[in-house]
Design brief:
531 residues, 9 strands, three-stranded antiparallel sheet, Fumarase C, Chain B, domain 1, disordered C terminus, 20 helices, mainly alpha, Fumarase C, Chain A, domain 2
Length: 531
């Protein structure tokens, strides 16, 4: 069997494994890692078979029908929406009202969410509705599961949500796909939704009263994006620690800066974890006599910088998973007490604040890695390595510039990441005739966080290539240099993607390939790899 056949066979096996793995929705809490697995195509979804859960979903829909038949008023079901809640909708138009909501919110703009983001959004909305407080029918949940399992992906514009009343406009594209309107991606092709449902043997869904509102009036877009952001940030924190260890060896620096006692004396758990990761990567390396006492801050204080992100991730997980595992539309339907509860669970403030904080912590990782990169390329500070890490021979050295331009680009990406740390959550705007007069901006915060992550991953890719080059140059200078096994294995894996730069060449394709690996949380073990 050829190498190509082996790769194809591995891909087929992976696809079958993904198809066989099911994440259960309903009657249980969903984790960030499960959302990421769904988003990355590593798992499908299955609705719970628990009769008590299924009964609860049906009872909610049945109670709402009886409540309306008794002449009761329910916001967004037999009234207008938002400021128009004072407008009564006659019973003969109640069935038509949900479709109107999906249609007039079809005004999104900006780039479309990618496949993984779209799947994360659908998974988040499905899980919220599965809590049984939304008055929707079981068939609605089944069709949302079909979107995931058949990869019928609504084209969701990323811009147009203020994060309360939830993600109305972007989620209207999910609702529209269910009713057979607008375009979807299916089998890699842009298709009309109605045609795809026909191919799958289903009629487009006719929304029952409140189902349009239940689909749209929630925080699924910001929450789905936040799950993906969390996983990428977790991976970056681990990678920043690995690159600190690699830079320490490349710079002939001091392992003593990461002694456990230092971090016991200042007991922030995250920085202790970061120091432990670096210590593990440097295991066996002893500081030789005559070493300078202290390395520069970007090396010596790296655990303190990385630790802020690691500690932030602990409470970011709490808030994201609380939002993920919540009923966050309005009104809520209590099938047990048979009550309609008008409230504001669609408000995305916790996600907004979490994403504003996370993007700041991640941007600091970009700054840290950029400063480490600046050290290792500069022959005034890199303890004997060639200028700009050129690997050229002495005869060719005058015309070779190695990683000079890479460092400039890294500085540009870092500056842009830092610029994006302005919090979105403080920019509330009064909208919709002052009905939505205090809004969260949670989806903008989540989008900003993803942009900061994208830029930081580019910085990490640049630093990775440079640090591996520097390590090889250090070994070339001193063959006795101890390279601990984790760092040697990591350097070899990077070299398989990007060979040693002995003569100047364009590194864009190397950087793009490595950035993609980092964004997929696939460059280093640990972090977001567990599910």
């Amino acid at each position: 069997m050829s190498e190509h056949d082996l790769i194809d066979d591995a891909h087929t096996h992976a696809a079958r494994a993904a198809a066989s793995r099911k994440v259960t929705i309903g009657g249980r809490k969903l984790s960030i890692e499960e959302v990421v697995a769904i988003a990355k195509g590593r798992a499908q979804v299955a609705l719970s078979g628990d009769p008590a859960w299924r009964s609860r979903i049906q009872r909610g829909a049945d109670f709402l029908r009886r409540h309306l038949a008794a002449g009761e008023t329910v916001y967004g079901v037999n009234t207008g929406y938002g400021d128009a809640c004072v407008v009564d909708v006659p019973m003969e138009l109640v069935e038509a009202l949900p479709l109107q909501l999906t249609r007039y919110h079809g005004c999104g703009m900006g780039a479309y969410l990618d496949d993984a983001q779209t799947l994360a959004v659908i998974a988040a909305r499905l899980n919220s509705l599965a809590y049984g407080f939304s008055g929707v029918r079981p068939v609605l949940l089944e069709r949302l599961a079909d979107l995931v399992n058949h990869r019928v992906l609504p084209r969701i514009p990323s811009e147009g949500s203020v994060g309360a009343s939830g993600d109305l406009t972007p989620l209207s594209y999910v609702a529209a796909a269910l009713v057979g309107e607008r375009d979807v991606m299916f089998d890699g092709t842009l298709r009309d939704a109605a045609g795809v449902w026909a191919q799958l043997g289903h009629a487009p869904l006719t929304l029952a009263p409140k189902e349009g509102l239940a689909l749209m009036n929630g925080t699924a877009v910001m929450t789905g994006l936040a799950c993906l952001a969390f996983a990428r940030a977790e991976h970056l924190a681990r990678l920043a620690a690995r690159l600190t260890a690699l830079s320490t060896v490349a710079l002939d620096g001091r392992a003593a800066h990461f002694d456990a006692m230092i971090f016991e004396a200042k007991p922030h758990a995250g920085q202790a974890d970061a120091a432990a990761w670096i210590r593990a990567d440097l295991a066996g390396r002893d500081d030789t006599p005559g070493h300078r006492l202290q390395d520069r801050y970007s090396i010596r204080c790296a655990p303190h910088v990385i630790g802020v992100a690691v500690d932030a991730l602990s409470w970011v997980r709490r808030d994201v998973e609380n939002e993920l595992n919540s009923a966050n539309d309005n009104p809520l339907i209590d099938p047990d007490g048979e009550r309609v509860l008008h409230g504001g669970n669609f408000y995305g403030g916790h996600i907004a604040f979490a994403m504003d904080a996370l993007k700041t912590a991640v941007a600091n990782l970009a700054d840290l890695m950029d400063r480490q990169l600046a050290l290792i390329v500069d022959d005034k500070f890199n303890n004997g390595l060639p200028r700009n890490l050129t690997g050229a021979t002495s005869a060719r050295a005058p015309i070779n510039h190695g990683f000079k331009a890479v460092q400039i680009s890294s500085s540009a990406w870092t500056a842009e990441a830092l610029k994006h740390t302005m919090p979105a959550s403080v920019f509330s705007r009064s909208t919709e005739a002052h009905n939505q007069d205090k809004v969260s901006m949670g989806t903008i915060a989540a989008r900003d966080c993803l942009r900061v992550l994208e830029l930081t991953e580019q910085v990490a890719a640049a630093h990775t290539l440079a640090a591996v080059q520097a390590l090889k140059l250090r070994v070339r200078l001193n063959e006795a240099t101890l390279v601990p096994a984790p760092l040697r294995a990591f350097a070899d894996s990077v070299a398989a993607l990007s060979p040693f730069v002995d003569e100047d060449r364009a590194l864009e394709s190397d950087l793009r390939a490595l950035t993609a690996r980092i964004a997929d949380c696939a460059l280093i073990e640990g972090g977001a790899q567990h599910e």
